[in-house]
Structures are given as C-alpha cells and as structure tokens.
What does this fold into?
Amino acid sequence: MATGRKPRDLSRCSVGRPQAGGIFMRPKTPLLSALLASTLLGVSPVAAQQPSAPPSFADLTMPSAEVKPQEAYVRAVARTAYLWGWPMVNMLNRRTSITQAPQPRLLGGILPVAPQGQLAMLHDYVNPDQRAVACPNQDVVYGLGFFDLDSQPVVIQVPDFGDRFWVYATYDQRTDQFGQLGKAYGTEPGFYLLAGPTWNGEVPKGITGVVRASTSLANVIPRIFMNDTDEDRAAIQPLVNQVVAYPLSEFDGTMKEMDWSGLSDIPSSDEGGGSETRWVVPEKFFDTFPQVLAMVPPLPGEEALYAQFRWLMDVAADDPDLKAAIVDEAVKAEAEVIAPFLEWRYNGKPAGNGWNRSVNNAQFGVDYYNRAATARSNIFENRPNETQYFYTDDDAAGAALDGSKTYAITFAAGEEPPVNGFWSLTLYNEEHFFNPNDLGRYSLGTKNTTLQRNADGSLTLYAGATSPGADKESNWLPAPDGPFSLYIRAYWGKEAILDGTWQPPKIEVVQ
It folds into this structure.
C-alpha cells in the first residue's frame, strides 16, 4: 500500500548512521565521514585527513652505478637513449661543423654556412646537389645560422617584406621551434634579439622584440617565398640582402646589408654521396651523448629519463665490455629503427588517398617517435600552423612509385591546397633529395606561372621519368628511373588544412 513517502536513494548508502532495516546511510558531510572512519579504524581525525605529500624528484633514490648490471638491461636503456637523443646529437654535430666557417660562405658552393652568432643566406633556390638537409624546398630562398644564445645573444634583422610570405623558423636543440617571426604572425620590420634561457643581460634601445630560446644551442632557417621568374628573382634581392644576423655586441641600431649573391666558396669534404650528410655516427654517439645531457635541460617529467641515461654512462665508463655493448646497440638501433624512418609510412598519420601527413611538427615536446622520424627524414619542418606536410612513396593503389611509369595527380577545381601562403608538390628520389633533370624542375605549385589547367578548371600535374607529351610538359615533374616520392607543402594553411578535412589527391597511373 502506498504511504506517500519518497523512496530512499540506496545509491547513496555507505558506512554511516544505522537506519531501519539495517541499512547504513552516508553522513551528510566529509568531516562526519572522516570522524566516523577514524572512530571505526582507530585513527585520529587529524591523521585521517592528512595524506602524505608526494616526494619531490630530489627526494627519490637514484640508480646506483656501483651495481654490476646484466648486459641485456644495459642494452635496453642504451637503445632508448639512442632513439631519444638522436635529434639532439644531430643538432650538436651540425652546429660543430657548420660554425667552423671563418665568415659567411657557401660550403661546397652550395650550403650557406657562417661562424657561430651569424647566418648566411642564399640568393636563389637551393642547389639540387645539396645533401646537408633532406627534403629541401624549391619555393623559397633559404638561410642558415647556428648560435649559443646564453653566451652570445644574437640580433636578427627583419626587413619590410610587404605582401611576400616569409618566416624565420628558429629551432632549439630538441628541434622544437621557439618564437614567432613571420608573415603568419604579423611580425613588424625591425631588430629582434634572440636570447638563451639563462641570459639576463640588458636589452638595448632600438630592439623591436626579444625571442627566448628554450635551449642555449639554437639555429635559424629563414624562408622567403619567391616566384619562379626572373622578375621576382630581381625583386627579392634587396630584401634578402637585409636578412642579417650578428652578435648583440655589434648592434648599433642601423639596418646592415650583405650582398649574398657574392659569397665565396669553401671546399667540402663531405663523402655522403647521394644520401644526407651523416650527422649522427652511431659508433661515436655515446661519446657525444653526455654533452647533450649537460646542455639540454629536462622537460617536465623527463628527470627520471635523465637519471637512467646518466647511470648508463656511469656504468659503461667503468666497464669496457658494457661500453662495447652500448655502441653495438647504437649501431643496431640505427639500422633497425632510425633508417626505416626514410619510408613515409612511418612518418605522421594517414591523410587519405595513400598519403601521410606530419604530426606535432617542430613542437614535438615528448613525442619522441615523431621527433626522431622527422629528424631522420626531413628535419627542420615548420610548426603545424605555419606549414603542413603531406608525403607518400605509393600511388593510389598502394604500389610503390616508380619512374618507369607516368602518374597523374589531379586537383579538382577549387581543391588545390587551401592556404594563405603558398603550396607546392615536390618530387624526391629515394634518399629524399632532388632528381637532377634537364628542365631543372623539382617542384610545381604557387610559384609557377606557366601551369596549364584543364577545361573544367582542375589542375593535373604529372610525374615520371618520361615526358607526358609536349602539351603537358609545363605540368611535369621529371622522376628518376627507379623509386621516388611525392611531397606536398601547404604554407600557412587555412582551416581545412589544419583540421584535416582537405585531403591530398589520388596518384593514378596513366601509362
């Protein structure tokens, strides 16, 4: 029979005051709960409400170098150290090599190099014989400089680029970008001070802005868009000549200029052949690794990794057999893990139609996988909001791209990469470098004024070792006879690029 009472909410029942029928109800306040629990368990109310604070890292027990560890365990830690530290050793070795230049020059007549604290600029597209940086870009005029920003802050000049797209990508030793200098950020012309994380000097008058690096070792790679015309090559020279960097001690408030077209050459001893310069040599990795641990402060949560790696170096230092084991493990990790990153299927995430796209580029944080993959396959990417990269080794059917075939890549009308900056399709050989060809053509896109569109407004580009025909040759990217890859850049992408709703086109065999 109904009594008119509301039913009890048994979902709230717990230890508490006894109720009719033997049901215990939860007290109404946390304090009453604590008091009751302390009474039942024999614990004082004060102690019951004071959980112990977690220890700080400094309070934790550290690994002991006095132990005699098993070799298999040491190898496991060594492999982790190799994969984690590979990008940072890469950066350190690049700086050591490139800053040996006595003044801004062209190494081997190709690569811009400069002493530490300065940069060197090209005045045209990068030479196709360049082998220092994989996946070079033939849409921009490049520059390069390496710094030690704690001991030697640097001033970098920004001329008035007007409507031209430009970005100064500044990288720390982890290969993460820092600062925001470029067209996408509305950066004003002027003088920008690049300083390290511990530099605390005085900023002089006349400095437009200060950009703090997250590590002392840093580098900058200016990228300035240029159309593939003689007129634009001439128009860009006065701007390129004002892209200059120098130590803060040389700042006087005047815009310095450098005729970058007149750089002299430095002979190169690089014997990398068709591959990228071997910036990381596994046999020597652990000779340099302790320097990285000392130079690069741990990110939040990385303190435990650093403790393991320092322990590794300590136990290996006192045992020749363990030292030989970690070197052997570095060689194996290079072959088994690092080398396969040259395959695009191991980079980023699927983007549709057989392509992959970059993930966390230049803001890797603790994404060690994509950091190592990018450092090996196409180091010095831009941030996702600055550039998105799409790449593939395969056609739409999943077969490997091969120059013996001719491929069509068709962008439907209005479906070219939606960008505020520029886009391009670049063809690379299997080592991720340009394929020398009689046309001197390595990419097609926004920079090209002679592209031919189809009657319906769509745009078909062709790739293959053989010309698709005289009427299509303006849209042709010559390929090597064997394997090659395709790579789309979308600079300053619009929302459809950023959110992934735009997909790269299918790559289809036409003959």
In short: The first strand starts at residue 13 and ends at 18. Confidence is low (pLDDT under 50) at residues 1-28, 30-41.
